[in-house]
Here is the input.
Amino acid sequence: MTLTIENLQEIAKTETDVLESYRYRINVCVAAGCLSCGSDAVKASLEEEIRRQGKEKACRVRAVGCLGLCAVGPLIDISPLNVAYQGVQPSDAPDIIGSLTGAPVSRLLLPTDHPFFSRQKKIVLENCGIVEPERIESYIAAGGYEALYQALRQMSPRQVIDDVTASGLRGRGGAGFPTGLKWTTVYKAQQADKYVVCNADEGDPGAFMDRSVLESDPHRVIEGMAIAGYAVGASRGYIYVRAEYPLAVERLRRAIKQAKQLGVLGENIFNTPFAFDIQLRLGAGAFVCGEETALIASIEGRLGRPRPRPPFPAEFGLWGCPTLINNVETIANIAPIVRRGGDWFAGIGTEKSKGTKVFALAGKINNTGLIEVPMGTPLREIVFDIGGGIPAGRRFKAVQTGGPSGGCVPAQFLDMPMDYESLKDVGAIMGSGGMIVMDDGACMVDVAKFFMEFCMSESCGKCVPCRVGTAQLFGILERITAGDAKIEDIDTLKELCDLVGAASLCGLGQTAPNPVKSTLRYFENEYMAHIRRHHCEAGVCAMGKAREDTA
Amino acid sequence: MTSNASIPPKPRTDVNPARIYTLRINGREDETILTVARQNGIDIPTLCHLDGLAERGACRLCIVEIQGSPKLYAACVTLVKQDMDVITDSPRIRDYRRKILELIFSERNHVCSVCVVNGNCELQNLAVKLGMTHVRYGYLNLTHAVDASHPRFSLDHNRCVLCLRCIRVCKDIEGAHTWDIAGRGIHARIISDLNQPWGESETCTGCGKCVQVCPTGALSEKGKSVAEMTKRPEFLPYLQMMRKEAEP
Here is the structure.
C-alpha cells in the first residue's frame, strides 16, 4: 500500500478530532531541559490525578517538545486555556487539575504575554511544544509531510532547489554557506550514488539548538532530509548525531521507524519512483567530527579526522560519492520553505541573512533557554527583552557567539543586528547559535583560556599548527592568568593566533584562535592588567602576587 | 624585452617558474602542485610527504599561496588546475614554515646531540634549510616512553613528529597494519597493534620499512649510537616500480 495525500489528511483529521474531543489538553514539556528537572514525574502525576478525579474524558496529557524557557522548567501549557505554568512539581497536580474550571494556580503561573514568548518568530521551532515528538500522527496533524508530498508530486528537483535558492537560506551550522548553492552542486554531480547527511554533532559549549529540534520535532528533520534527497538525487541519508544526546537518538530512531511504517520513507514514496532511507550514526564524543570531512570519515567507520578540502564533500564525500551535508537547523527550515515558498522565507530577516535564527541563551542571563528570532534582531533585544537581562543586578559585559570558533561581542555593540555579516565585522561569528552571556564577573582572559583549552583537547592532532599551536596558546594564556607572563608573550600570542588560523588543516584549527583574537581586540587592557599589574579585575584568576601572599 | 616600452610585454608563462600551467590528457588532471613543482626544479619543503606513500596534508610545511584565494593550500594534496597561479615561496610562507617547524621542535624532545640520526635527520635538515636557528616557543616537555621491546628496532616517542609515515608504509606497502594512532591532539601517539609492546606484536613482520621511512630518530635500529643511524627511504619508489613491473 502506498501512502496518498488522502491518507495523510485522514490521519491529520483523526488526530485533530481526537484532540478536540478533550476539553483540556495539558502539554508537558519532555525535552531534555525539563526532563532533567523531573517533567516525566509531573506528567505521571497529572495523569494519575486526572484518573483520580475521573476526568479522563475531559483531559488529555500530552508529552510535547521544548517550550523554550528552560530556566524555569518543568513547564506545562494548557490549551485551549492559554495558561502556562512554570517550575511544576508532581505535588502540584491536584491543584492544576482542580483549577481547570476555575482560576489558574497563581503561584505557578507563567505569563504568556511575557516578552520571552511574544518577541519570538518561530519557523524552525514552530512545532516545538505543540506536536508530540514521539507520535508521527501529531506531526502530520500539524501539516507534516505535506511539503514532501508537494515536492514529490508537484515539483521537479530543479524547482525545489530554485525555491531553496530563492529563500536565501544559509547554512545554520556556522559558516553560513548558501544552501541553494550547495544543493545545486550536489544536484549537478554526475554520479548515480549520492548521499544526504544531517550534521547533528552539535558540540559548542553552551549550544543546544539542534538537540532541542531533534528531541522536540524529529519528523521535521526527516521530512527535510527526504526533500533534500529528492532535490539532489540521493536515495540514502545519514543522521550523524552525538551519543551524548540519548533522548534525541531514541526519538530519531522511533521517528524513522514510524516514517518507514507509514511509507514516507522507503520505496515509492507517495506513489512516485522516489525512494529514500535514513540511517543513524552515533558520534563518540569528538568535537572535530562536526567538521564535515571528519564526520564523513567517522560515518565510514574510519578515524574521525578531517582531510584537506578540496575536494569538497559535494563532489567527493561519503564513500567518494557526492554528498550533501547540512546542519539540523538548516534542514528543519526546508519543509516550511517548500510549503510556503522561497519568497515568503526571503521576506524575513535582513538583506543578506534571511529567515530566522535559533539561539541558545546560556550563561549569566535570566531567561536561559531556546529562542528563535528573525535575522537582524538587535542583540540588546535578545539579551534584555527576550532574555530578561542579567541576574543579580550585575552589568552586561559581553556575549560569546559561535562557541570556541567564535568571538565575543562587547557592550558597545549591543544595538548591532544579529546577522552573519554584522557579527563577522565585529570579529565574532554567527556560529551554530550558542550565545553565552557574561556579566562583569567574567574575566575575558579566563574566557579565552577556557575556549583554548577546549580546542586543545578537541584538536585531533593531525596537523601541526593546531596540535602544537593550540597547546602553546593555552600555555601562554595559563601563564597570563597565573600572573607569570611577560609583556612579550602578547606578541607571541598574536603571532601564534595568526599562524594557527592561517596554516591549520580544518575549520577547528583555523577558527581556534578566534576567542583569543576577539578578547584581545576589545579587552587588551585586561590582558595587560594581568601581565603588568598581576591584577584580575573580575577577581577570577588567582594571580602570582596573591598566590605568594597566601603561601 | 626590446620592443616598445609603452606596450606591456606579455609574460612568457612557459618560462615563469612561479606560474604552473597544466594540461589535461585523457581527462586526467591529477598531478599535485608538489609533484609538478618538483618536476620543474622548484623546491617545496615537506615532512609528512614521502614519495610512494599516500598523502596526508598534515605537517603543513608545504603550504603555498594560490592567487585569488586568501587561504593557504598544502601543495602535496592540492591538484593543479588550468590557470592556477601558485606562489611557492614568499616572505609570509617562509615565516609560517619556520614557525611550524619551531612548533614541531617545541612539542617533544628533539635534542640532536644525543640522537641516533644526528646528521642524517629530515627534521634537522629542514631546520637548516628553513633557517630555523632556535625555538622561541616554550618547550612542552611532554614525556613519553621508549619501546625497546622489539629485538631489532626501537621506538622513541620523544622523537616522533606524528608524520604517520610508519603507519602508511606498514598498512599500504607491507600490508601488515601493525602501526596505528591512539589518543588525540597533543596526546596522540603511535601504537603497535592494540597498544601492545612492539616486541609482542603478532602482526609485525619485522621488515623494517617503518624504520627506513621515519624522518627522525623515533624509529631506529638497535645497536646504533649517536649519529650512526642512516635511513634509506629511497627503496620505496623502487619497490613500487618493481611491483608494478611484476604485475601480469
